[in-house]
Amino acid sequence: MTCGVAILGSTGSIGTSTLQVLRRQRERFRVVALTAHSNAELLEDQAAEWRPAYVGLVNSGKGADCLVEAATRADVQIVVNAVVGAAGLEATLAALRAGKRVALANKEALVMAGELVSEAARAGGGEIVPVDSEHSAVLQCITGRRPGELARLILTASGGPFRTWTPERLAGATVAEALQHPTWKMGKKITVDSATLVNKALEVIEAHFLFGLPYAAVQVVVHPQSVVHAFVEFVDGSVLAQIGFPTMELPILYALTHPERVPDGGARRFDPVEAGALTFEPVRPELYPAYALGRAAGEQGGTAPAAFNAANEVAVQLFLEGRIRFGKIAETIERVLAAQWPPSAQSLEDVLAADAVARRLAREAACS
Ligand code: NAD
Ligand code: MG
Questions:
Q1: In the predicted model, what is the mean pLDDT of residues 258-264?
Q2: What does 32-45 look like in DSSP terms, one character per residue?
Q3: DSSP state of 268
Q4: What is the pTM for the complete model shown?
Q5: Does residue 84 have its Cβ closer than 6 Å to ligand 1?
């Protein structure tokens, strides 16, 4: 019996990498549902290749409901959520409530509504398995261990394209410069998030919810080669790390097969001599002001992480449209987080209300 997979956001970077993995794993998995936002042409090509039972294009008659429809189908066992941004939240909740495994690339939804997502998994018997490479690394290191044995995580960050710049030069960085990621080829939003280090702040919050650790135990180090994906320290002081040349295909495959491993020839085999020197540096706060803001929003809890995420989504969109300069992204987030954010994020209404208010404040702050 093969396992039914739904891919939400199948036309994006993670979506297409997932299909690449599945081309090598046809005896284990079959594609049952595909959804995309607006790239109808690629979605049609994918549908022709995979012949899924369900195909949904958001930017058509179907609308956003197609994500939940695809995610909750009876013939789906694993939902790969590769949608970018807050739009992925409802499908994650619905899939977990329906008892599915969610292979989660869409970290924004977990950041917005970490408590609700965890609650949905408990209530419905679903499980979240991270696709994000750092969190996959952590999961690979802790699988088989008891929760009480885990002491501390150190997530690595490439530092993005501006690691060696001065703060003054950085404030005026162009869209083309921000999209030059040194080690990963990804969608535009996460590439900008890597340049501001917002991506790492989102990942710290993601790790807090996935692994149940306090924020003080989730640390970050800049590692320009992106070969070590995370370090995990256990209570006895021993540290494990997961290592590999940068590719999302390995964490995607692991999210599908966890806790098992299956033979796969996709990833370039690791060679320490080829990898060469591996270096580690502290995060320079003056280069990445949005990183500290995101951590603080995580520690504040309640709806602050949803506000942080929404402010960032709006600011990044405006930056990509050429309407604000790079430095304005962090300034916008700071202005939005200065507002009072309700401490309760217990219901979807609480979270969506905070998301909507934060988007409005962000537009005002960005354009002032
Ligand atoms: P992308 O922009 O390449 O793809 C996004 C996909 O989501 C597309 O298929 C698009 O059709 C769909 N989509 C966009 N807006 C939508 C909406 N409103 N409703 C429904 N579908 C929508 O992005 P990506 O780089 O593949 O990233 C996807 C997610 O994975 C993000 O949350 C990102 O942070 C995370 N992630 C990506 C990488 C990577 O290497 N690309 C690594 C780790 C985590
Ligand atoms: Mg990551």
A1: 98
A2: EEEEESS-HHHHHH
A3: P
A4: 0.98
A5: yes
